[in-house]
Amino acid sequence: MTSRYKRFLPVLCVLCVPVVSPASDEAVDDGETIRCINSRAIRSTDVINDSNIVFHMQGRKIYLNTLPRSCRGLSRERRFSFVTHTRSLCESDRINVLKDSGLGAYEGRSCKLGRFQLATEQDIADFQKPLHGKPESKPVELPPVQDVMSDGADDDDPG
Predict the structure, then answer these.
(1) Is residue 104's pLDDT more than 80?
(2) How far does Cα 107 stand from its chain's mean position?
(3) Is residue 113 part of a domain?
């Protein structure tokens, strides 16, 4: 290697160092939410709607991810893909809605993930309940029927 390139070697080596996530499935914890989960520990996912995905992890941990923006088509298709070059799936990583073409699945809309919030099964059940619940159907109370009194004039008589 010529001396001309030797001075750039340390800079290039620093840029080539891969980012490695911690061994646990929690990368950066701020107390309420975390930025990353271990992608290899994901056992299954449930799409709640176009903005919320539940990640079921090894060890029975559950994380709710609320996307920063609605991901149109996610709740209809109910499946997605992602690519990660590390062991972590993090906030701001992108998922791709998987659409069915009849001949197989293809990647559709790409959407950013939000932060991951540790949750319980009950938290998820409560989250999925409608905000206002189902409206109750109650019969309408009608006023009692009253006799209509005639004023004595006959409407059929033209005279």
Answers:
(1) yes
(2) 17
(3) yes
Q: Is residue 116 part of a domain?
A: yes
Q: Among 136, 114, 101, 134, which Cα is nearest to 48's?
A: 114
Listed residue (105, 100, 95) closest to 42, CA to CA: 95
Stated pTM of the model: 0.63
* Residue length of the chain: 159
Which H/E stretch holds residue 71?
A: none
The answer to whether residue 5 is domain-embedded is no
Total structural domains in the chain? 1
Token pair for residue 88? Answer: 């972590």
d(CA 117, CA 44): 16
**What whole-number distance in Å separates Cα of residue 95 and Cα of residue 99?**
13
Q: Where in the sequence is the domain holding 69, given as residue range(s)?
A: 19-120
Whether 45 is covered by a domain: the verdict is yes
Map tokens 């090894």 to a residue: 58
Cα distance between residue 33 and residue 48, in whole Å:
19
Residue 68 DSSP label: S
Q: Of 70, 88, 76, 83, whose CA–CA distance to 23 is shortest?
A: 88
> What does the pLDDT average to over 79-105?
91
Q: Please give the Cα distance from 36 to 34 (Å, whole number).
A: 6
Helices (H) then strands (E): counts for the chain = 4, 10
